[in-house]
C-alpha cells in the first residue's frame, strides 16, 4: 500500500463516521478500507480480511471489484448522468421493467436514494391515501417490535429497536408497535405454527384496540435483520395476510436488507406466499456500486393517485433529488444480470445451508450458542449465558467475539445499539458469491473466537 498518512490525518480531522464514538480516534487511527476484490478487502496497512457482512451493512451482494457494474455506470454517466425523476431515463425504465418481472402482482417503481427514504415514501403514500379515500382516517402505521425501518424521524417512529431511537424524541405520532414473532424468545407458551398464528393474532388485537378505521398500514421485515436475524414461524405470514385483508390494512414489506437475493429468492417475502401492497428495497439492489433505493407498489395503489388534473393537490406530491441519478438503475441492471448469469440465488441457498449446518455443529461444542437461525446467506447465532434460562450473553463479550474474528482476518457483525438487554446475536451476511471454503473459514474463525472469549 502507498503511504496513506495524509489520508488518515484528513479522516481523523474532518470525517464524521456513522455509528462511531470518536473519542478513541483522538489517539487511535481510524480504519480505512482501501481496496476490495471478491469477498476480500484490504485496509490502510495492507492487511487482508474476509468480509462476512457484505460491506458492513449487508450491501455488497455480488462482491467487490465488479468491472461489469463499474463499466455500466461509467457508460451511462458519460451519456446522461442526471435529470429529475419527473421525467424518465433509459436505465430507469429498463430496470423498472426487469424488476417488475421478478415481482408478480406489483407494477410501479418509485426511485429514491436510501432505504430510509424508500420506507418514508410508503408512509407518505398511506397518509395521502387516508385523506383521499378515508376522510383523513386510517393514518396509523403499525410496526413490529425488533424490526428496523430507517434513520429519519418518521422511520425511527416505526422502529422496534429502542436503543436506536433513544435521545431522538419526540417521535412522530400515530405509529403503533405490534409484538415480535421470535419463537426463541416466546411471549406465549406455544411452538411452531401455533406460535406463528398467535404472534399474528396479536397484530389483530392491536388493530382492534386502535380501531380498524384508524389503521392504514402494517410494515414488517420479511426476516428481522438488526433485531436478531429472526424468521417468523410457520403459520405467521398466512395469518398476517388474512388480517390485513379483513381490516383493509395495506401490507408493506421492507426488503431493504433481504431484497435482491439475500435469502435465496429475489425477495424475502417470496418464500411465504404473501402478496404485499408495497415492497421497499435498497442495499443489495446495486450492491453498493451506486446509490439507489426503490418503493414498489401495485397498480391499485398507483391508480388512487390518478385524479382530475385541475386539482393541483391530488397526485403524489413528492420528490427525491437523487432518484433522478441514472447511475443507480444502470448499476442495478448490471447487478441483476450477474445474479442471473452466475446462478447466485442457488448458490445463496446452498451456502446458507452450509453456514447453518456449520454453526449448528459449533453449537454442539460451544454451549454459549443458544440458537442458530436464518434464511439463505442471512444468518444469526444468538449467544446466551445459560441455554435453560436463555439469559443473554453480555454485549461486551459478544463484541469481543467480533473483535477476535477480526483479529483472525474475518469481519463479522453483531446486534448492537438495538434492543436493550438483547444485543447478543452474531450476524453473518457474506456476499452471494461465497464458496464453501469461504463459509468454512468464517465458521472456523467463530469457533476460535468463541473459545478465546468464553473458553471451552
From TrEMBL:
Short name of one Pfam family: Aminotran_3
Transferase among keywords: yes
Key words, A-Z: Aminotransferase, Pyridoxal phosphate, Transferase
InterPro entries: Aminotrans_3, Aminotrans_3_PPA_site, PyrdxlP-dep_Trfase, PyrdxlP-dep_Trfase_major, PyrdxlP-dep_Trfase_small
Cofactor(s) listed: pyridoxal 5'-phosphate
GO molecular function: pyridoxal phosphate binding; transaminase activity
Protein name: Aminotransferase class III-fold pyridoxal phosphate-dependent enzyme
Organism: Halocynthiibacter styelae
Higher taxonomy: Bacteria, Pseudomonadati, Pseudomonadota, Alphaproteobacteria, Rhodobacterales
Amino acid at each position: 500500500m502507498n503511504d496513506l498518512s495524509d489520508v488518515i490525518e484528513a479522516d481523523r480531522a474532518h470525517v464524521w463516521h456513522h455509528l462511531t464514538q470518536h473519542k478513541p480516534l483522538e489517539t487511535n487511527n481510524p480504519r480505512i478500507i482501501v481496496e476490495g476484490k471478491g469477498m476480500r478487502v484490504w485496509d490502510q496497512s495492507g492487511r487482508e480480511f474476509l468480509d462476512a457482512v457484505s460491506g458492513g451493512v449487508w450491501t455488497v451482494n455480488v462482491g467487490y471489484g465488479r468491472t461489469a457494474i463499474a463499466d455500466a455506470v461509467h457508460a451511462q454517466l458519460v451519456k446522461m448522468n442526471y435529470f429529475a425523476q419527473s421525467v424518465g431515463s433509459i436505465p430507469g425504465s429498463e430496470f423498472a421493467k426487469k424488476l417488475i418481472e421478478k415481482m408478480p402482482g406489483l407494477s410501479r417503481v418509485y426511485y429514491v436514494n436510501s432505504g430510509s427514504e424508500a420506507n418514508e415514501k410508503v408512509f407518505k403514500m398511506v397518509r395521502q391515501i387516508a385523506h383521499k379515500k378515508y376522510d383523513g382516517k386510517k393514518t396509523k402505521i403499525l410496526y413490529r417490535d425488533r424490526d428496523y425501518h430507517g434513520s429519519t424521524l418518521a422511520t425511527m417512529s416505526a422502529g422496534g429497536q429502542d436503543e436506536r431511537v433513544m435521545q431522538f424524541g419526540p417521535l412522530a405520532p400515530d405509529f403503533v408497535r405490534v409484538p415480535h414473532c421470535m419463537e426463541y424468545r416466546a411471549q406465549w407458551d406455544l411452538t411452531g405454527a401455533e406460535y406463528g398464528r398467535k404472534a399474528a393474532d396479536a397484530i389483530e388485537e392491536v388493530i382492534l384496540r386502535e380501531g380498524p378505521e384508524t389503521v392504514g398500514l402494517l410494515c414488517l421485515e420479511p426476516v428481522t435483520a438488526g433485531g436478531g436475524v429472526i424468521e417468523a414461524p410457520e403459520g405467521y405470514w398466512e395469518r398476517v395476510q388474512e388480517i390485513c385483508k379483513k381490516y383493509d390494512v395495506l401490507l408493506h414489506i421492507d426488503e431493504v436488507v433481504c431484497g435482491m437475493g439475500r435469502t435465496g429468492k429475489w425477495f424475502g417475502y417470496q418464500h411465504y406466499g404473501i402478496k404485499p401492497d408495497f415492497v421497499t428495497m435498497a442495499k443489495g439492489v446495486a450492491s453498493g456500486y451506486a446509490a439507489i433505493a426503490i418503493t414498489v407498489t401495485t397498480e391499485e395503489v398507483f391508480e388512487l393517485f390518478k385524479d382530475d388534473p385541475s386539482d393541483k393537490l391530488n397526485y403524489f406530491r413528492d420528490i427525491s433529488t437523487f432518484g433522478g441519478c441514472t447511475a443507480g438503475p444502470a448499476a442495478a441492471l448490471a447487478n441483476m444480470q450477474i445474479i442471473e448469469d452466475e446462478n447466485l440465488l442457488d448458490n445463496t441457498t446452498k451456502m446458507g445451508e452450509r453456514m447453518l449446518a456449520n454453526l449448528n455443529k459449533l453449537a454442539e461444542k460451544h454451549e454459549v450458542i443458544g440458537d442458530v437461525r436464518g434464511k439463505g446467506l442471512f444468518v444469526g447465532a444468538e449467544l446466551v449465558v445459560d441455554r435453560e434460562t436463555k439469559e443473554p450473553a453480555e454485549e461486551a463479550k459478544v463484541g469481543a467475539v467480533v473483535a477476535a474474528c477480526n483479529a483472525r482476518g474475518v469481519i463479522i457483525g453483531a446486534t448492537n445499539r438495538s434492543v436493550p438487554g438483547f444485543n447478543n446475536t452474531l450476524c453473518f451476511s457474506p456476499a452471494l458469491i461465497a464458496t464453501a471454503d469461504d463459509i468454512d473459514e468464517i465458521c472456523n474463525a467463530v469457533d476460535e473466537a468463541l473459545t478465546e472469549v468464553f473458553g471451552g
